[in-house]
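Subject: sequence -> structure tokens, single chain

Hey, anyone have a minute? Need the predicted structure for the following. Not urgent.
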Amino acid sequence: MDQELAQVTALYTQVIGYLVNYSFQIFGALVVFSIGLFISRRIARFVLVLCERKQLDITLSRFFASTTRLMLVAATLMIVLPKFGIQITPFIAAIGAVGLGAGLAVQGLLSNYSAGLSIIFTRPFVVGDTIRVQGVWGVVEDIHLSHTVLTNEDDERITIPNKHIVGEIIHNSQADTVLELRVGIAYGSDIAVAMSAIGSALSRIEGLSTARLTQVGIAEFGDSGIDLEARIWVQTRKFHEVRFAANQAIESALREVDIAIPFPQREVRVIGDYSVPTETPICRAP
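Reply:
Had a minute. Here:
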């Protein structure tokens, strides 16, 4: 009991001595740290506003703002830690050693970050663009260092690791997506009237891109009719909604101008007489 009491007394003496010797330094360190956090937030916000004022890409703006804040917080920690009696030199060396081992262990994660930096600086796409990559497509909602987030008309969030984007073939159609529609008309129909009716009907649909023109033309000559194709640019977030409305508009437009949509048919002709004789002669041996 006396030994435990002596240990508690010694610990209490050490704590009191530490507080007496470092109380003002600890208080000053906390004040400096609070001021550093406040200043880092203000400067990061200022960097973000400045980038937006210069009409810099939103992804780069966020990257510069967050990097500025992290650097200021790290500098503040380097100033504050010695006030607590913590030497930062061996601490930095330990972080370097641990970082080397961790880097070898998480090469895949680091490759995502390096790919993210490549995307941010080369900017093959920006927030708001419609991209197709790795068999998926959608509107770019956000670009992080490790991954890119896409959304579609169904409000699904598609998360793609950045290493699966860099080095791949990327289709970027900005905010719109091309919609291709086909319909067949009977041979002998007035093609000009049909194309004019389809173009006029499609122009009245909501959700079309105002920056790109609608194209209507002959796609090919089929077995049962002439295939017409319409290519329209629609807002990606309304892709399927516009597709359904466009198909309905095309069918109604062709019906109004009495253009028939043929059904598949095949004509078979029999050439020659292949009738089977009713009696088969029997050959007898002599």
